[in-house]
Each structure stands twice: as C-alpha cells, then as structure tokens.
C-alpha cells in the first residue's frame, strides 16, 4: 500500500478525528490445505461512524484522488522482534527444566537475569529415565529405576519371566477367598501398580496391556492379581534395557497401528483398544485401554479403536503445525487388520443403517478425518500388526515380533544373576509346545545333581549313567549280548544273536 501511495503519513492534528485501525491476519490455503501465503490487512472496527476502510489490494492501476479526505490512525507496530522459527524448547516438570536449543548460552543469560538457576550439565538422568547420546541417536530407557525398585520390593532375587502375562490369562474379579489371602500377606498392591503405570507411560510399551489390566482391580483385588503384578516385575527384570531410540534422520511420515481385542474382559465383556503411533521408525505414542461400551462385533470394536487413535492423530497434526509452520501436510497412515472396520469408515450411507445406528456419534469422527485427507486407511495382516501386544496377553514370540516393528531396543542387555524362566504357556502361541521342552521348565543343572536329592528311580538311573566311566565298545557289546541271551524267552535268542553278529561286523 505504501508502494501504491494509498496513504500519506503525517502527524495527527486536533481537527483530524482519525479512525482507529488494527491488524487482521489470515493464512491462504492451497488445494491440499497447505499454506501458500500469509496475509496481513489493516482494518477499521465497525460502529465508529465512518464507512471508510483500508485493505491490502494488489492492483497495477493507479488510484484516483479522493474528493474527501479520511484520516486513519496508524496500526500498532511490533513491540518485539519474534523469530519465525523457534530455536529453543523448554521442558518443565515442577522445578526440573530441560533446555533444547541451538544457542543455550543466550537462554541461560536471559534466565539468570530473573531467576536463580543451578545447571546440572547435559541431561543424563531425568525423572527415572536414563538418557544416552551417541553420534547419531538418542537412547532413553529406565534401567536404573527398574533395578532400584526391584531391590526396594525384594523382587530382585526372583527369576526373570519371558512375558508380562501368560497368553490367555485374562484377569477377573477376585473371590472372597482370594481377597482374604492377599490381606493376610499384607502386600501393597496399589503401590506396585502405581510404579508399573509410571514405567508404562514413559519407555516400555510392552507392559502397557498388563498394567492396564492390573489397574482395573484396585478395589476387588486378590492374591492372583498380586502374583500377576509380580510377574510383570519379573519380566522387567530381564528386559529393563529396552527403551526408545531417536535417530537423526528424516521422519518419513507418520503411521499408526491400531488393534482391538473383542470381548476381552470376562467380567464386563468389553473390548480393549490398543494403538501405537510412529514417526518414521520412532515410537512417539502408544495406548492400551478398555473400551467404555460393549461392542457387538469385531468390526465395531475395531471401529471404536480407530476413532480413539484418530483423536490422537488430530492432536499430533496440530502439534506438528505449531512446531513446523511451513511443513507440507501429509496424510497419516492408519494400519488396520479388520477389513469390515475399514469399509465402515469409508462408507457414506451406513451411518444410519441397522447395524450402526446404535453407535455413538463420536465414533464417526474418523470419517471426518478421512474427508479432510488427514488420515489414510490401509489393511495389514494380524500377524504384522505391531499393536497386537497392546490388546491381549501375548507370548514371547509375538512380543519380540511387535517390538521389532516398534523399534524400541536401546542399550546393551544387562548380565542377569538368574536365567529367565518361561511361565506356563509363554511360548509361541501359534505352535503346540513340545511336552519334553515343557518338562525342562524347572531348571536342574547337571552340576547340582549330586547336591539335589533323588526324586525318582529314573533320576537315580540318570545319576548312575553320569557317574559311570565310559566303557569301550567291545566290552559294552559283550555285556549287553550276555544279558539278552540269558532271558527266559527262547524265541528271542536267534534274533538277538543275529543282531549281535551284525553289530560286530558293523
């Protein structure tokens, strides 16, 4: 406007009676909702008794002179210079602060003018989290915190478990007998669950479902619930090195795995929602919770879970927009393993159909996200859904497969004082366990055979075989042949003799 000489700037006089003015800002969006231009207009508020306004008009022509002059008070200018892109981020928890900045010295100088601050150096341990830096990554885990809590509750002497809960072990309300048994022991179950909840929301996503299940029985709790909580601590004892990894690389887009376990709760028949959100290969959000209402089908349960993760993705889109103002919007991938839920979300006519009219309107929030091109639905096999461990108790094979997709491995595996012990059923649930392998679940090392008492005749024979020196092949063959020939059944002698003769020739 100054270039086109829309106004002439001069000092105000008492006879001018200028019209007040203010700034109006707007962002112009393109076809894909990306910001293509920022606009600023000078406007006059209404109700001032004047009809003249001034706006930013791009026009190559000249403006003709006005017969009547109008006086406009200059709009307020900037009081401080604000950079377009933030270069300093501040994390505050009570009186603990973490500064993330390219120039932290400038921030320190400004803060010291107002506050008395004690600097602890680079962030290494914060709120129970170990922070380790490498040349290209940031590693976060809670190894020391888990180790300290295991010792605090005298759980560090137990064998590590291979899974948080045994597959198929769905917790339910305790009976009166189980409640009385726990009261006699006097253990603080609520304190254990509180510690597990703090751990599950920070670094290890593999215990999220177990903690969610344990948290539902803080009132009607029994001895079985306490043993389940102890098993989760045993699992953490062997996997405390697991955490989150953040590398210096392009994010590669945002994707989310979503899963729902239908009719999960034996007490209420409600389903469980689980989802995990990744930015590239980095896990940034996860959740495991019981749905508030009963679902009539697996597709309905999955549809509810999709609406929940849709709210998380909508918030994440607002966060990305606030941090990266000029970022190009890209549809988030939502990976679902139920095709019926995908068809329901994409359908435009089934909202009031017989099968969906009982659903709450908030569940159809996912359709608005599809119309706005914020998310993109894709089908994925159940075996490739990383959110599977967030909806049900899984075996160690499923846990390892999901963790490989979520990429939360950090640090080196610690040396354990005791070897991990498999719990009942904690094998690959897609295969039938070998009975011989299941018999070996109770560890009995060979070097302890002499110390342990003999439990059966078979164990006594095994002990004798271990202590007997190895005989040469000839003497062993002769002794075996003599024992077989001395049997009372005469019909077996020719056959045994032939076998003995063939063995000698061999």
UniProtKB/TrEMBL annotation:
CDD domains on file: RNase_HI_RT_Ty1
Sequence ranges of Low complexity compositional bias: 477-487
Biased composition annotated in UniProt, kind: Basic and acidic residues: 444-473
Highest rank taxon of the organism: Eukaryota
Segments crossing the lipid bilayer: none
Region Disordered, annotated ranges: 406-493
Protein name listed in UniProt: Reverse transcriptase Ty1/copia-type domain-containing protein
